[in-house]
Every structure is written in C-alpha cells, then in structure tokens.
Amino acid sequence: MLSETTYGELQEIAARYPEPRSGLLPMLHLVQSVEGRITPEGIEACAELLNITAAEVSGVATFYTMYKRRPVGDYHVGVCTNTLCAVMGGDAIFERLKDHLGVGNDETTEDGKITLEHVECNAACDYAPVMMVNWEFMDNMTPETAMQIIDDLRAGKEVRSTRGPRIVTWREAERVLAGFPDDLADEGPAAGPASLVGLGIAREKGWTAPAGAQGENGHAVPEEPRQVEQAAAEASPPQSDNATVEKESGTSETAAEKGDAQ
Fold first, then answer.
1. Residue 188 burial (CB < 10 Å; 0-12/13-18/19+)?
2. pLDDT at 210
3. pTM of the model
C-alpha cells in the first residue's frame, strides 16, 4: 500500500508537466524507489492520478526495460553485451559474474544484494567493456575488476563510479530518476580522457565551430555543402597513398582506386 507521502509526491511529479500524463515515466521510477519494483498498487495509483487506464500504465511499464516487475536487489549490475563491449570482453565478464554470484540473467542473489542483467548499448563505447551499477558507469572492466566491485558492494564498502558519484542503492537511484535530486550530481568526474580526445585535438589546431547565420526562426542556417566538405576533409586524418582494402575476391586495391571505382 502506497503511503500518503508517496501519493503526494506522485501528484507533485504530474503537476510539473502541462500534460500530466507526460509525468508517467518519472512516476513509475518513484513507485520503484518505494516498492522496489512496479507493483499493481503503483500502476493503479498512477492511472488514477493521471486519469488513464491501468492497462495504459501497464503497457508503458512493460515496454521499457528499466521498469521491473520483480524485486531488484540493492545494486542492479548491468553488463553491456552489445557488439563492441561483447568483443572487448563483455560476454566474458557476464559469464564470470553469473558463475561468481550463482544467478542467471535478470536474477537476484539470495542475500538480496545484487541483481545481474545483460544490457544493450550504454552509449559508452569509448570505454568498452562497460558495466553499470544502478545506472552509473564502470569503465574498462575486466572479469577480475568486475568481481572486485561486486564483492565490495556485498561487503558494504564504498564504491565510486568511474565517471560519476559514489554508488547509492537502487531505490535511492530510482528516486533521483523520479526527479528528486540527491545532491551528488557534481560528485566525481563528468567525462574521461577518451571522451575528450576530439576536444583536445580541436584546441591544439585552433578549430572552432562555425558561427553560422541565423534564420528567421532563430536556428543556424547550414553552410554551403562545399564548405562542409572542406571542413570535414581538414578534420580527417591523412590517408596513406598505398592504403589497401581487401576485395571480396581476395585481391586488393588502393583506397584511391576504390574511391574512383565507386
């Protein structure tokens, strides 16, 4: 049963939006922060407050994978097994953690501490293989470092994200996603070296974004195609004259010849 405090906060979320229904996603995160999952009571409460059907709320809650219908542990550990992370070691990390924890995908350890899940791309390919704990990044993982993080979490030790704050519990993280800040937003680095390589090159070469003219609607007017092509060419690394590419037939040709052929 949801408390009056939770009902009040659900109403507060809905009131943030011109169309109250737009508040459904953060409202569901709030339900998870209180109940540990999406419950029938939570679905009914959201439907009642937004004047929509429980079926509509349930349809949203079952569409997005961040909403859980089973209890989640104190720490949700998501291992990226999408293409790049997988070939860089994500699959090996996931298999090692399954063996180490004695659970399968989307299952929780008996002590209720860890829920393990393989997840799709976390948009952090420059740090592959990546693992997330309660949606905070853990970069450049190995099976050994991933296991150490898990063991530290289960032991109650403080664990910090690679590019973010110290790790809070899953319910606390869900409350933040509902729009109630925990004042940790500025804790820890926001970006790492791999993400800033392009910025460093731009500063070294004195590159800046073109000012662009302003159109009637206030948006920048695109530059002429030739200007765009020239800027792209200057930004691209030089290609070796004898760079070759393999044909399907097993023969090779220079990159310039391939370009001419196309």
1. middle
2. 85
3. 0.75
